[in-house]
Each structure stands twice: as C-alpha cells, then as structure tokens.
Write a structure and sequence with these properties.
Layout: E1 7-10, E2 19-23, E3 26-33, E4 48-52, E5 61-64, H1 67-90
Antiparallel strand pairs: 1-2, 2-3, 3-4, 4-5
Length: 92
C-alpha cells in the first residue's frame, strides 16, 4: 500500500492559480503563481511557490520555475515526510 500517492486537484476559485495536493480528503500541499516576488527579480526559478502543510517542517515554502518541477518536489517532500513519520512510529 502506497500511502503517499496523492491526487492533484486544480484550484477553481475566481482569482486562483495552481493546484492542491490531497491524500484522500486531506489537503497536505499545493502551489500557486508567485505574485509576491519583486518586479526586478529574476523570473527563472521563482515563478511558482509551493507550500506544504505537514507538521514539523522547518521550511514549508519552496519556489520553482515550472509547474512540473514544483509538483515533483512537493511529492518528493511529502513522501520523505511520511517515510520518516512511519519509521518513528514503528520505532526504527
């Protein structure tokens, strides 16, 4: 059983962009267009900003230049978080 296989759902609000990452019915992460960057700032690696809503993460925001990259990074971080949480729960 792969507990960390989630589902991406596109945000459908009027002024929303990006998607949210769900595990069953619980939203654990998401990403959206990075509208808070400075106008003169380089646009190569921070067009999209992602956030992860899991406890004990010290850095829950990530930036990326494309939607594919940020989705892959979010899925990787969520997967690692669950592996570590399960290992702690099993006492390993």
């Amino acid at each position: 059983m792969n507990i960390t296989k989630g589902e991406w759902r596109v945000k459908t609000g009027r002024y929303q962009s990006g998607s949210s990452y769900y595990l069953n019915k619980i939203r654990v992460a998401g990403y959206e267009w990075n509208s808070i960057r400075s106008q003169g700032e380089s646009h190569e690696n921070n067009d999209w900003i992602g956030y992860i809503e899991l406890p004990s993460l010290t850095n829950n925001h990530i930036c990326s230049g494309s939607e594919i990259e940020i989705k892959d990074e979010i899925e990787r971080i969520v997967s690692v978080w669950f592996k570590e949480a399960l290992a702690k729960a099993e006492g390993k």
